[in-house]
Amino acid sequence: MPSDTSQILRKIIKEELKPIHEELKPIREALDQHTKILDQHTKQLGRLEDRVDATAGDVEQLLMDVKGLKDGVGFWHDRDKREIDEIKTHLGLPLMPDTPEV
Q1: What DSSP string describes 20-46?
Q2: Do 94 and 88 touch, CB atoms closer than 8 A?
Q3: 57-81 pLDDT, tens per residue?
Q4: Can you give the pTM of this predicted structure?
């Protein structure tokens, strides 16, 4: 059981802290408001993250398709170059190098 002295000290401390609590009240309210805004932004960020995750598979498939097209174009280019070089050789025309001279 607390003594009378400790109860008196608690009461004095409580009274002394009242003005400080009152001064901090607007700060605490501002922090609460900022916390609400931060929570809203966090929810929006979560929704955006979900959308990014949902499109990641589509982007990956698109990259694979582009790589396939690039490989196909490269194949046809190489085949056509070989045929052209063969025709030029048959006709006695000079061949162009694969890479331009610098």
Answers
A1: HHHHHHHHHHHHHHHHHHHHHHHHHHH
A2: yes
A3: 899 999 999 999 999 898 898 999 9
A4: 0.46
Q: What are phi and psi of 94, to 5 degrees?
A: -70, 145
Distance of CA 12 to the CA centre of its chain: 54
Reading the block at residue 61, the tokens are: 């498939």
What is the C-alpha radius of gyration for the chain, rounded to an integer number of angstroms? 38
Q: Answer positive or negative: Cα dihedral of 74, 75, 77, 78.
A: positive
**Six-digit token string for 58:** 């589509």
Q: Report yes or no: 78 and 68 within 8 Å, Cβ to Cβ.
A: no
Helix, strand, coil: what percent of the chain each, to 5? Answer: 85, 0, 15
* The pLDDT of residue 100: 64
Q: How confident is the model at residue 52 (pLDDT cuts 50, 70, 90)?
A: very high
